[in-house]
């Protein structure tokens, strides 16, 4: 926990009855790891202060070998676009600078908040342009706007409350400059041109069922009927209550996050899973988090990939209030990816996120256990707004250059990884072929991605 500026008095500290050597031997033999094993590997031994460089190399090597055994040497990526609907959110997570307080979006506020809300028509136009360019997937994650509801039936239920703003975090669309309409209308707009819509984190699904007794399965079924194809497992952060109390006291708890993911899988959707690490948590919390994910996957099996999201600290309340002094170190990033690969023996794909790591480190992580290099993205907002400086898109030629530079084979994939196309590296320039309108034409030729709508 290099970033933590305080002793938070956590109950979970990295102490074990295991030795580093035994944990490494189990990892190399492909045995299922315990939490203590994971802690020994991610700390390079609790018997030593700090990270031991030689031991770290042994852990990375074991993870790289496991990656090769599980999924081979291909490096995958997807042609995708981020289309986030709104930045309005009152949840107040202390690591997030994506959101803006929702009352700033009200018609009677003249504050310049710098955020946005899109109407379904605007979302549709943005996605249609991207699909025309060859994009396969649209990833959409949004603030919990008080006017956003699941569908019209949900709106009626919320409006029937005596004081919906106080009781169920609901305000009518008329109160705002821009009406985001319902999740169902947004999903229907984003899927209209044939894109795979990857959206609705468990936190958003919780917002989409507030004030009702609907199950997560029911909610995700309705969302799937409206056009949702798979769900991102963000909002996970660190799935240990004592950490959530510090960094996101307004968010759903660990059990609720798990229930949301179960509901999505019960509704037949694929999901991803994430961890956001490198802030106040200890190495023990990181491994406890992996244990929650492995257990969920044992029971449901619908997690297609695990995405380690390294905390970007600039412009966040955690940093501004002096609770952290920075994010994870390079060693911590490498060990997070490696131990995720070794611990999650039931999740095939580990993603290296260039948005969070930049190109050089993202490539290095492909030799530490990761096998997927995310997506073209075209317009990235969450990391950019928080101060991350690694840009907003990667073209297919960028992907081919980067992946061949480390001696691996670039493969375009579908969101669910079930369709793959190895890229013929001699046949450039390269473009997507799996999207509904993709014909191999390059996604971008040095120009910026499609425009985004702003309030
Ligand atoms: C911004 S939220 C949007 C979706 C929805 N409001 C939710 O919380 O699920 C999506 C994810 O972005 C990630 N994120 C936000 N701020 C971040 C930061 N400073 N560094 C790294 N990841 C961050 C978190 O993991 C969060 O769950
Ligand atoms: N790692 C990040 C992602 N990953 C999402 C992927 O690009 C893709 O949607 C997923 O692999 C499913 O196909 N998205 C972000 O916005 N930011 C990231 O850091
Ligand atoms: N959009 C999230 C990350 C994300 C989204 C979807 C995923 O499947 C995975 C990760 C961010 O920028 O932090
Ligand atoms: S992480 Fe999501 S819920 Fe939390 S403040 Fe940011 S947008 Fe809102």
Automatic annotation (TrEMBL):
Q: What residue spans carry the Basic and acidic residues bias annotation?
A: 413-429
Q: Which gene encodes it?
A: mqnE
Q: Which cofactor does it need?
A: [4Fe-4S] cluster
Protein name (record): Aminodeoxyfutalosine synthase
Give this protein's Gene Ontology molecular function annotations: 4 iron, 4 sulfur cluster binding; 7,8-didemethyl-8-hydroxy-5-deazariboflavin synthase activity; metal ion binding
PANTHER family, per database record: FO SYNTHASE (COFH), LIPOYL SYNTHASE 2
| Keywords on record | 4Fe-4S, Iron, Iron-sulfur, Metal-binding, S-adenosyl-L-methionine
Is the keyword Metal-binding in the record?
yes
Question: InterPro entries, alphabetically?
Answer: Aldolase_TIM, CofH/MnqC-like_C, F420, rSAM, rSAM_sf
* Gene source species: Haloferax massiliensis
UniProt KW Iron-sulfur keyword: yes
């Amino acid at each position: 926990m290099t970033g933590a500026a305080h002793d938070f008095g956590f109950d979970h500290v990295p102490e074990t009855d295991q030795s580093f050597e035994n944990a490494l031997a189990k990892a190399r033999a492909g045995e299922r790891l315990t939490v203590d094993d994971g802690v020994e590997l991610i700390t390079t031994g609790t018997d030593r202060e700090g990270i031991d460089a030689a031991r770290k190399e042994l852990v990375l090597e074991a993870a790289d070998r496991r990656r090769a055994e599980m999924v081979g040497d291909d490096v995958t990526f997807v042609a995708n676009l981020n289309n986030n609907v709104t930045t309005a959110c009152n949840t107040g997570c202390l690591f997030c600078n994506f959101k803006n307080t929702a009352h700033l979006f009200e018609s009677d506020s003249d504050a310049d908040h710098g955020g946005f809300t899109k109407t379904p028509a605007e979302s549709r136009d943005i996605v249609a342009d991207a699909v025309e360019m060859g994009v396969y997937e649209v990833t959409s994650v949004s603030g919990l706007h008080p006017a956003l509801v699941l569908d019209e039936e949900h709106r009626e239920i919320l409006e029937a409350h005596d004081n919906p703003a106080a009781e169920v975090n609901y305000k009518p669309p008329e109160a705002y400059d821009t009406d985001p309409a319902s999740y169902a209308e947004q999903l229907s707009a984003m899927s209209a041109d044939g894109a795979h819509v990857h959206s609705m984190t468990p936190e958003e699904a919780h917002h989409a069922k507030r004030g009702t007794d609907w199950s997560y399965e029911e909610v995700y079924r309705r969302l799937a009927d409206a056009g949702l194809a798979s769900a991102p497992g963000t909002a996970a952060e660190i799935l240990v209550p004592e950490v959530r109390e510090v960094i996101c006291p307004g968010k759903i708890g660990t059990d609720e996050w798990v229930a949301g993911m179960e509901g999505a899988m019960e509704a037949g959707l694929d999901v991803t899973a994430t961890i956001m690490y490198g802030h106040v948590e200890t190495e023990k919390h990181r491994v406890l988090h992996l244990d929650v994910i492995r257990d969920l996957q044992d029971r449901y099996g619908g997690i297609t990939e695990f995405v380690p999201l390294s905390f970007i600290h600039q412009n966040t309340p955690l940093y501004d209030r002096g609770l952290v002094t920075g994010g994870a170190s390079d060693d911590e990033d490498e060990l997070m990816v490696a131990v995720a690969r070794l611990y999650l023996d039931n999740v095939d794909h580990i993603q290296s996120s260039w948005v969070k790591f930049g190109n050089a480190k993202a490539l290095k992580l492909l030799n530490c256990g990761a096998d997927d290099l995310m997506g073209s993205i075209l317009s990235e907002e969450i990391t950019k707004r928080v101060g991350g400086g690694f840009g907003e898109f990667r073209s297919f030629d960028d992907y081919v250059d980067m992946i061949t530079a480390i001696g691996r084979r670039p493969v375009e994939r579908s969101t669910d990884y079930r369709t793959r196309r190895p890229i013929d590296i001699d046949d450039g320039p390269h473009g997507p072929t799996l999207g509904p309108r993709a014909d191999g034409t390059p996604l971008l030729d040095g120009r910026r991605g499609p425009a985004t709508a702003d309030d």
